[in-house]
Write a structure and sequence with these properties.
The chain has 123 residues and is an alpha+beta fold. It has one domain (7-114): OB fold (Dihydrolipoamide Acetyltransferase, E2P), CATH 2.40.50. It has helices spanning 7-16, 19-29, 31-40, and strands spanning 42-58, 61-71, 77-85, 99-105, 108-114. Strands 3-2-1-4-5 form a five-stranded antiparallel sheet. β4 (99-105) and β5 (108-114) form a beta hairpin. α1 runs antiparallel to α2. The protein is globular and about 40 Å long. The relative contact order is 0.26.
Length: 123
């Protein structure tokens, strides 16, 4: 089951329509951090090990912490955590055991982002 790259967060951010509110949503959802990592990151694969409820919801969609088992292209495996806003409709597609594309910061491998949703174009 593929997750639409447009993602729920983009629709929500577009609905807000203001830079100030968008920045607030980015901070709570993890999107700003994820987009920064995706812009400079090294591709890898990540197996979802566990989902952790952060207790935060945005527009009734949960912000989830993902525990990932990251496998680099060189075959090195390590555990990392990231968070993201997930549409309630996409929850079945991001369950433990699923392998997803990720990128990690080459300067700090603990900084990982799932490469499932698009980031807005930088201005």
């Amino acid at each position: 089951m593929a997750i639409p790259r447009s993602g729920a967060l983009l629709a929500f951010a577009a609905l807000l329509g203001t830079q100030g509110c968008g920045s607030l949503v980015d901070g709570f959802s993890g999107r700003k951090e994820a987009c920064a990592i995706l812009a400079i990151g090294t591709p890898a694969s990540g197996r979802i090990v566990k989902l952790v409820d952060t207790g935060t919801t945005i527009n009734d969609d949960p912000v989830v912490e993902f525990v990932l088992e990251v496998t680099t292209t060189g075959g090195e495996i390590y555990e990392a955590r990231t968070k993201g806003l997930v549409s309630r409709l996409d929850i079945p597609a991001v369950q433990p055991g699923r392998v997803v594309p990720v990128k990690f910061d080459p300067a700090d491998r603990a900084r990982v982002a799932m490469d499932l949703w698009e980031c807005p174009a930088r201005k």
